[in-house]
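Input/output pair, single chain:
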Amino acid sequence: MRPTLLSLFILLIFTGVDAQSKSRETSRTSSSNGVSSESSITRSDDSYKFDARFNADKYEEIEDLLVKQLGKNYQTTGSALEWKEEVNGKSYFKCRLTATTLRLSLDRELSSLDFYSEIDDLGDDLKEIVQKHAPCEPVPPTPPTPPNPNGSDPQEEIRKAEMELLKAQERLDRLKKKGNR
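Output:
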């Protein structure tokens, strides 16, 4: 029995063959102080996306690279920097940088191949910045502290406060991320 064109079409539908190619690479790192960084690059036939979450101490290096590559023609929206490019009134590129997040998106159908290559290279450079660890600085020994008259250990109180602060920062980042969707 010879397969018909209709049966081949049905086979393609049910096997989930997608004509569009898509790749995604995600990286995560954690530092010794519990602060994590992550970046994700998604490339498809019609779009490019870069998303990152990072420690605020990397902001200045990321901003410097973006200004160097994209120029100073950005808008300041609240505490975020935003770059946009349009062609014939249609936006094909957006970049939004906050103190701890970065999002780039590019419509490959509306942008030139050269601009896509520049943004792809920029994404690779940004990924390196986001993922690199801060240099380890030696921590001087902490002198013993006198007992607290309240009966609690000051070092333990500090540790608890730092953990609460870290949890609050993570919650804030999650809420900001939800708000940006």
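Confidence is low (pLDDT under 50) at residues 5-19. The first strand starts at residue 22 and ends at 30.
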